[in-house]
Amino acid sequence: MLSQLNSAPLYLICGSIVAFVAAVCIVFMVRAYKAGIAIGMDPVKLKRTLTSSVTFSILPSVGILLGVIALSGSLGTPWPWLRLSVIGALHYETQVAQAAAERVGLTTLSAAEMTPVAFSTIALLMSVCIMWGMVLSFFFNKAYLQKLSGDPKEKKDGKKSFGDTAMVAMFIGLVSTYIGSYIGGFVSGKGTLSFQGDLTPIIVAAVSGLCMAGFIYLTEKKNMVWLESFSIAGSMLAGMLAAILF
Predict the structure, then answer these.
(1) Which own/partner contact pairs does 83-86 have at CB distance under 8 Å and 24+ positions apart?
(2) Is residue 111 a contact partner of residue 73, using CB atoms and an 8 Å limit?
(3) Which whole-number Å values give the CA distances from 209 to 2, 9, 178, in the listed order?
(4) What is the pTM of this model?
(5) Is 101 exposed, middle or buried (0-12, 13-18, 19+ CB in 10 A)?
(6) Where are the domains of the chain?
(7) How far is CA 126 from CA 87, 91, 163, 197, 232, in A?
(8) What is the pLDDT of residue 140?
């Protein structure tokens, strides 16, 4: 099954889509550069911005690469490469793939148990569930952004906008759900897939959280703003290292 998931047709299909998206990025980059020159921006500063953007994009991309590697063992390389290159997010793709694998009866998300039906279900679910952000943005993004940015008077008074509150609430709920499932799986011994009664996910979450707290401290208290671009990838790598060592 894994040889089929790494076959030339899949590489051709997924690679064509990734190449198209990359081409669109280049077109917009060139147009943005020309627009900057047209409005009188300093070419030296524009080139410096391009260079710094490339530099600060490399390390955060390591986290995405790790996600592709992690999923390639069960889903092949082309599909995770496509999902994490275009519109996917690492935490989303892995979570949905794992949930879909459970629903089709797989005990583990691995190539050994993968079937054509299981892969089709996982791939379809990974695609359909994430596309609604684009679809809904097309119809409601303008009104949503106005609500998200909040009232200028409230910002002047130091009040938080709806967007700030909503994002904080969403992430608290997300983190609570993950950590709750880890603790529940450890206590009951009936966790999903890879953490049946295992303490490893809890340790990984704790190490990653402490690492992220360190990045936030250095960024906000020590004015090391450049570290912000590396915080997610750095925390992920620390968590993975903790999992290996533990």
Answers:
(1) 83/126, 83/127, 85/18, 85/21, 86/17, 86/18, 86/21
(2) yes
(3) 34, 40, 13
(4) 0.63
(5) buried
(6) 1-130
(7) 11, 12, 26, 27, 22
(8) 86
